[in-house]
Amino acid sequence: MDRISLRENLEKYRTPFEEEASFVQDFIDLTYDDLAFSRERLQGHFTASAWIVNKRRTHSLMALHRKLNKWLQLGGHADGHENLMQVALAEAQEESGLTSLRLVDSRIFDIDRHTIPERGNVPEHFHYDVRFLIEAEMNEPLVISEESRDLAWISFDAVEDFVGPNQSILRMLEKTSKSEILL
Length: 183
Fold this sequence. Notes:
Nucleoside Triphosphate Pyrophosphohydrolase, 28% helix, 28% strand
């Protein structure tokens, strides 16, 4: 999935969630920017994430992010790579140590534009996060990377207790429970 296929996928992307629908065009517009996949674009850039679930769709793997001190899905910067599906899979493996990761569907699962606070010489900016649904085995050992303070398989019933009012994660949780892409 390069920049052109990403744009095509975004143009076809439909969501019943009003907030998510409100920034689809911003994602499409960003695909025309030469720096869209690079941190050098200081006002905002693409990132990719993995919403990792177990096969029974009862738990999600989440990380306690080291810098933001929040429970989040795994993922990271594109760093020049236009294939965000591959970025999401690579980040998921790097941040968890899991080898059983399996892409459930090549279509975009979710998108979110969120603000990243200023840190050092990097100004406050947007992450245009493209997310993919990925399955993994819960019994495989986890390896905590430098990106995280902790990793945990969190029961769907407890996700909100961990993430609070984080609407983008609650939206992915809702999509998972309603997903036609089941077992």
